[in-house]
Design goal:
The chain is an alpha/beta fold. It contains 11 helices and 14 strands. It is globular. It binds adenosine-5'-triphosphate. Keywords: ATP-binding, Nucleotide-binding, Transport.
């Protein structure tokens, strides 16, 4: 279809044109997602110095997903989790969890959100469990705060401890349990009031590798058996072995994702495949991995060219490459310096 003639022929304000434009408008970002972070910015002021902990972060999580958020120390993981758990408000952007708009919530709504919609597991076991209560009393505590009847509390606390594989710890206090057992009981506490999302901040940070694996597998079974959406924040890259999707944050933005799926070989046997993707944000930006930049000495201005099936990024400085890039640009009709 000749686009120019359509535009010229149509009366600019006709109802038909407006209706067509409205139909063609893309759906709102993350309209059907359970968690939506759009261009999130969080700036801290510390002793007169500004720290940009989140720098325009975009993230969507669908209902029922099990997602790990990884990143180096200082990349902004804990800041993101503080925002999502309703403890902190971003400087700019949009953030929604289920029907809650976390930018505009009142203090009272914040309390209700934290009680009804989200559960937490923190790195420090002391923050998760009351030391003088048994495992089952710890799980029942948030249920009684929510005003649930005694018998129901008992039955559901026992069922949760069972799903987490720590039913045998029901009558033990935290001091009588191992670190891994305490974290699994902490997951049960986080799930006590059937939240839509369970957030875990470095839940395996104080555990050895074998125990960490048990705790991550416990999160996986919670996700599978109870259908709870789970977001685990960690600096441990091995977490991606346990989840379908790992999002990496770099410099306060989502930079790459690893997706795992089960593939079938020609002989019919199944195997796990992990694929890494760079994330293109809403403004069209991607982060080039540091090793790519270093290997090709990409600094400052670079050349972007649109090829038949991909976009190429080259050094902008060399005359030879400049010639190459211009001929590519002529071939495809595009070619520009990246800003
Ligand atoms: N309350 C605060 N005041 C000032 N700066 C802060 C504050 N909280 C975090 N920051 C800074 O924001 C940046 C991101 O911190 P954040 O704790 O979110 O990173 P992280 O990825 O969770 O790191 P870690 O893995 O070490 O916990 C860091 O530079 C940090 O120093």
């Amino acid at each position: 279809m000749d686009h120019r003639s359509t535009v010229q022929d149509a009366p600019p304000t006709s109802l038909a044109v407006l209706e067509e434009r409205a139909r063609a408008r893309p759906e709102a970002f993350g309209r059907t997602s359970l968690i939506v972070c759009e261009s999130l910015v969080r700036i801290y002021q510390s002793e007169g110095i500004e720290v940009q902990a989140l720098q325009g972060l975009d993230l969507l999580v669908e209902e029922g997903e099990l997602v790990a958020v990884v990143g180096a120390s200082g990349s902004g993981k804990s800041t993101l989790l503080s925002v999502l758990s309703g403890l902190d408000v971003p400087t700019a952007g949009n953030v929604r969890v289920a029907e809650w708009d976390l930018m505009t919530m009142t203090a009272r709504e914040r309390v209700e959100y934290r009680r009804s919609t989200v559960g937490f597991v923190w790195q420090q076991t002391a923050r998760n469990l009351v030391p003088y209560l048994t495992a089952k009393e710890n799980v029942e505590l948030p249920m009684s705060l929510a005003g649930r009847p005694r018998q129901q509390r008992r039955t559901e606390a026992a069922a949760l401890l069972d799903v987490l594989g720590v039913a045998y710890c029901a009558d033990r206090r935290p001091g009588q349990m191992s670190g891994g057992e305490q974290q699994r009981v902490a997951i049960a506490v986080g799930l006590a009031n059937s939240p839509r999302v369970l957030f875990a901040d470095e839940p395996t940070g104080e555990l050895d590798t074998a125990t960490s694996n048990d705790v991550l597998e416990a999160m996986r079974s919670v996700n599978r058996e109870l259908g709870t959406t789970v977001v685990v924040v960690t600096h441990d890259p091995s977490v991606s072995d346990h989840v379908q999707r790992t999002v990496e944050i770099r410099d306060g933005r989502t930079s790459s994702e690893v997706l795992r799926r089960t593939a079938t070989r020609d002989d019919g046997t199944e195997h796990e495949v992990a694929e890494e993707f760079a994330v293109l944000d809403r403004a069209g930006r991607i982060q080039l991995p540091q090793e790519y930049r270093e290997t090709l000495d990409l600094v400052g201005r670079v050349r972007l060219t649109l090829e038949q099936s991909h976009v190429a990024v080259r050094r902008g400085q060399d005359a030879a490459e400049t010639d190459d890039a211009s001929s590519d640009a002529h071939r495809t009709g595009h070619g520009r310096r990246a800003r």
